[in-house]
Write a structure and sequence with these properties.
alpha+beta, 37% helix, 765 residues
Length: 765
Amino acid sequence: MTKKKPKKTNAKKSTTSWWRPLWSFTWKLSLVGLAVVTFYAIYLDQIIAQKFEGQKWHLPAQVFSRPMALYPGAAVNHPQLMAELKLLGYRKVANPRQVGEFSASSTKIELWRRPFLHPEGNQAEQRVMISFDSNGVSSVKRMSDKRELAVFHLEPVLLDRIIAGDGEDRLFVPTPEIPSSIVDALILVEDRSFYDHYGVNPLAIARAAMVNITAGRTVQGGSTLTQQLAKNFFLSSERSIVRKVREALMALIIDFRYSKDEILEAYLNEVYMGQDKARGVHGMGLASQFYFGRPVGELTVSQQAFLVAVIKGPSYYNPWRYPDRAQERRDLVLRLLMENDKLTVAQYKAAAESPLGLRSAQKSVHQKLPAFFAVVKQELRDRYGDSLLQQSGIKVYTTLDPMAQEAAEKAVSSTMASLDKRAKDIQVGMVVTDKYSGGIAAMVGDKVPGYEGFNRAVEIRRPIGSLIKPFVYATALNQSDTFSLATPIDDKPITLKNEQGKTWSPKNVDKKFSGQVPLLTAIKDSMNVPTVNVGLAVGVGNVVNTLEKAGWSESVSPYPSMLLGAVNGSPLMVAQVYQTLADEGRYRKLTSITAVLDSQNKALDVSRVPSSQAIDPATDYLVQYAMNHVVRSGTAKRLGAAFPGVRLAGKTGTSNDGRDSWFAGFDERNVAAIWVGQDNNSKTGLYGSSGAMAVYQAFLQQRPPMSLRMTPVNGVVNGYFDRTTGMAKQGNCDNIVSLPAREASYRPAANCGEPLSWWQKLVGG
């Protein structure tokens, strides 16, 4: 009997019955998941493309100093150029062999200048020989062909970057300008398979996971450079699986869309390198300046290795706080370079034995210039509009002279500490201009120069006292038929009455009267009564007109009291009009900005700075001559004694009751205007010569002056005048004094002013 085959159980049917729906659900779910991932990837791709192909970073506005101009006759001496080169981070060597180096003898400096962006275009690296004489620069010759250059510029000092918004600070450096040693070390330390993977390295991730599991903590990361870039660009620093997945997906997209060189450039400029107070330091370019105070292209191999070393932990490897840690980490990077044939054994040993070469921790990479930067920002708003500083990558070239600023700050700090013992709670405002460019070279608005607050250099309005007097005498000397430096001026008691019947009886500081004094004596001794007499003779309105044409920016009431300085002003306003006196009577509105370039390095259009001939050059020369005598033998003679053999021009000023101490003066290069007083307008007991002039003297001690050349201009001759009457005489007469005079009015009397004899009449005198 044949056995029947057993029937299939229901188990197989049940298995089939649940497997098919599960499979159907799984592949449908996978399809949905794939669609979600695809759409999410498209979304991420748009975000990445927008970042990479648009503006990757908001680059802070870079603010530069003036580029020092060197040319035959430039008022720059040997020590000043040496100081400028030190500030710029040039290295002194026996024989310059590369950019950033110079050598020096007592009268010459051989310099290999860096390439840089000048407002007028890119300046290539250049090797030159600069020679000096007693007047400053005598010649600038190119070393390649010994050709003399008409003008040669040093690169400007990067003063600061104006950060808007995110607090990130960086200097963009394209990949070709990054030293190859940095790139080699970065890849060896952070991502050895960078050029082989597709944004994510699964083997590295697995290896790191095993190491971390074994250690029981996170000791190694498996992220590629591309993943790190994705995290830095788009993600937070939270530790989660979701964030890591998103990071990996973005890294794959970045690697698919962009070349390795583009990714590397973005990483080198994005990577976090440290913290500078409230500012994050990002990228190799800024890190080089932050740690070493020089461009990344000029770093030693040792310094380059440190920049790569510090990426792992900028706080942990802070070289100022933990120098041993930092050096150990740097040496590890150097060893990796040697082991992979990027350095020879000798190069490795030399680099490992060298110090880190850090910049001084006390020297900030940001210039604290609150007073000057306030003026710059206001001028940017006035000339370019409110939105300019919100633009990325603009470059602002200013007129600031870093050496003049340093000298001004040191002068203020040292002098105010001394003066504070005589008059408590005194304050200061100081403005220095460049005589040749008409720009603001330095500014201090507080006795603590870095203090951000009330800017006394610009915002105060105080009576300027005797600083008005040169403009009274300029008005008179312009009337050359009536006044010369030898003209006798009455110095006798006078009383003036106004329309309300009130009287005013001006007096000299010493309360004495001399009867008559030569006009030159009245200026140099700052005599009040002769000044009032001269001002009344030429007309108070005409004096006001002279002052306003010289650049005084606020209205002045034409009352006789203004002749002695009853005119309220600031150091900036005083600097403006004294700049006109120093510049042969030419008025140019003081500026703090010379050019602004956009992110494409194209100059922005702007209206020209106004300029005019305010005072006749011949008249102005006579006023300068008189102001030189103020320093030689007048109210500022202590200043002259401090700098024997140097021609300086200056004027002291003191308001009523010694409330305000003023000084304004200039050498061949700079004009300075200084106020010293109390914010509450109390009496200080300081005169112009004992307060503000002391600041100027300290400034010149920090920045040795260039003697005024005082070359007579056209229209000025050497005249001879009777000491008593002031009459023009011949050079062979008795009782005469030699003084410069305006040629148009110098008519010396024949025969020394005596009647002609019959014989002289016969031969024609």
